[in-house]
């Protein structure tokens, strides 16, 4: 049985880790490298670093910061934000990232998924999808959740995997930062729609929420920010709790 993964997410703006609610009300929560070291030592399986304003500001993601992270963090980490070409991805992977996460640029140029997968392998490509449930449909958003697109969650995920995405990182904008639980129904449907690992994101508030993402949502990994940044849940305690629930974890 494959073990499930716990992934702290570090949203980065101006070199600092920040966190918001429903993609708004942004607060500073610390240095991204120091937090990464702390989470690695605490038992996190992977980390995700997202440059949350790179797409909106139309600039590339932070290779210098990636090099610092790679020097000090000894678990796999993914970097996203502002990646528009396979060359952009190459810079970050050579700087030390294990995977790249693409979102807005893939929506405007889906061939980007093919290009990165062809150059570096499917295992390096995480397709991040921010979606909001509106009138019974999960609509996909771009530009850090500020721009609604014509894409729908499940069909876009399927297309992304066909083009070479090795993982799907699905963030429910309805749940993000609300600590009310993950979008388990959508997660379960997503896991049936595509044959790659699904990372659940948006809404973690309790240990039971993580269990729900794995048991009900059938997610392969669960990503969270607030509960880890504000020490509401310790990763080592969470993984022991999940293991005691019968969920396969790496302790």
Quick synopsis:
By secondary structure, the chain is of the alpha/beta class. It has helices at residues 32-42, 63-72, 86-95, 104-108, 111-120, 153-163, 184-193, 207-215, 226-229, 235-244; strands spanning 5-13, 16-21, 24-30, 47-51, 77-80, 99-102, 125-134, 137-142, 147-152, 167-172, 198-201, 221-224. The chain has 10 helices and 12 strands.
- Regarding quaternary structure, how should these chains be classified? single chain
Per the CATH scheme, the topology name is TIM Barrel
Spatial shape: globular
Class of secondary structure makeup: alpha/beta
Q: How widely separated are the two ends? A: 15 Å
Summed up, the helix count is 10
Number of strands: 12
Percent helix range: 25-40%
- Strands of the widest sheet, in order across it, are 1-4-5-6-7-10-11-12
């Amino acid at each position: 049985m494959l073990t499930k993964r716990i992934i702290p997410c570090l949203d980065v703006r101006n070199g600092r880790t920040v966190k918001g609610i429903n993609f708004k009300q942004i607060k500073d929560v610390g240095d991204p490298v120091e937090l990464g070291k702390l989470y690695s030592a605490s038992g996190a399986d992977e980390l995700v670093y997202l440059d949350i304003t790179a797409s909106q500001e139309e600039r590339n993601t932070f290779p210098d910061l990636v090099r610092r992270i790679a020097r000090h963090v000894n678990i796999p980490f993914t970097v996203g934000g502002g990646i528009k070409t396979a060359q952009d991805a190459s810079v970050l992977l050579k700087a030390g990232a294990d995977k790249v996460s693409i979102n807005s640029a893939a929506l405007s140029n889906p061939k980007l998924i093919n290009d990165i997968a062809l150059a570096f392998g499917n295992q390096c490509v995480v397709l991040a999808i921010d979606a909001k449930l509106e009138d019974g449909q999960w609509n996909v958003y771009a530009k850090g959740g500020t721009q609604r697109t014509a894409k729908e969650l499940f069909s876009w995920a399927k297309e992304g995997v066909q083009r070479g995405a090795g993982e799907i990182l699905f963030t429910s904008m309805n749940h993000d930062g609300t600590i009310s639980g993950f979008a388990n129904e959508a997660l379960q449907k997503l896991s049936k729609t595509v044959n790659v690992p699904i990372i659940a994101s948006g809404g973690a508030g309790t240990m039971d929420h993580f269990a729900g993402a794995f048991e009900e949502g059938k997610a392969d990994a669960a990503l969270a920010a607030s509960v880890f940044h504000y020490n509401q849940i310790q990763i080592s305690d969470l993984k022991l709790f999940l293991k005691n629930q019968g969920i396969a974890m790496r302790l």
